[in-house]
Structure formats: structure tokens, C-alpha cells
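The data are quoted verbatim for reference:
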Amino acid sequence: MSNAPVDTGRRRFLTAATAVVGGAGAVAVAVPFIKSWNPSAKAKAAGAPVEVNISKVEPGQLIRVEWRGKPVWVVRRTDAVINELPTHDGKLRDPASVEMQQPDYATNPLRSIKPEYFIAVGICTHLGCSPTYLPDSFGEQVEGVTSGFFCPCHGSKFDMAGRVFQGVPAPLNLVIPPHQYVDDGTVIIGVDKGVA
């Protein structure tokens, strides 16, 4: 054992230098790690609201857009379809949309803000298939109903307000996404009505 005096100055210097280098290393590791928690530009764009030009959509026509990686339908309903909707309430599982599959402003018999436009996420509430729009031949699926959506995967059927018929696998009505109208020809999907 040596009886040499301990150099406390050197010891403090080495301790401080080690702490500084260790702290810098921790920061160098922490910054990229914390940045990885933020969504990427691609993820932000995927969840961003989608502006849709509906000015040229003809009565009876369906257009598809993508919002949050899901298909969203915009259908311009005809007057005949709008007038037919209340006549088949007795065939529906949830005609009054008690199960909240839509924003408050779309909790009405047409499940929409404007009667002529139906906007819904185009995914069946059973197992996630995308139903087919049958504008003129839905009567083959449900007697007395002209237009609707038929899911080819397991046979679920929805009317032109996205309400599910009884006796099919789908348990809920189609989801109505948040949306608002900017003007008569433009709708923004992904933003609640009244929120700019």
C-alpha cells in the first residue's frame, strides 16, 4: 500500500469529466428516442382532414376518398331515395341510430347534415370488408328497398343512411365520420361541423 498523498483535484476533475461525457451520451441517445414518439409527416398526412369537391357529383353517384387510411363514401342521394328511407324502418336493427356511430349533428333519420349527401366510412361493421353500392338493384337483397349497400363477405346489408338491416352479421350501422361543409360544393372530412 502506498502512502502517497491523494490528489483530490485530479479525482474531482476525472469525476466531473466522466459525468459530462456520460450526460452528453445520454442526451445524444434521448433526443432521437423522444423524436421517434412524434408521428411522421406521412402519418400526419394520413390523419389530416380531406377536402372533397362535391360540386360535380350527380344524383345517385358515389365517390370514394381516403381518410385515415379508410375508404369514405360520399353519395348524392336522389329525392326518391330520401323519400323511401322512412318506409323500411321496421326492417332495420337500429333505425333511430341509438348506437352512436355518428356525430351528434348527424343523429337524425337521414344520418347527415344535408339530406342529399350521405357521407360514411365504407367499412362493414362486422369484420371490416367494404360493402358494394347497389344504386338500382338492391331490391334483390331486401324486398321493397331500391338502393343500398351489400357486403359480399358475409351478407350484411345497409340502407342509404348506412343503417343495418335485421338478420345480418353486422351488429352496428355504418360509421359517419366527422365532417363539415365549407360551401355548397366542398366538404371537409375529418373536421367536426362548426370547427374551423
Remarks:
- The CA atoms of residues 88 and 167 lie 14 Å apart.
- The mean pLDDT is 86.
- The longest helix spans residues 8-35.
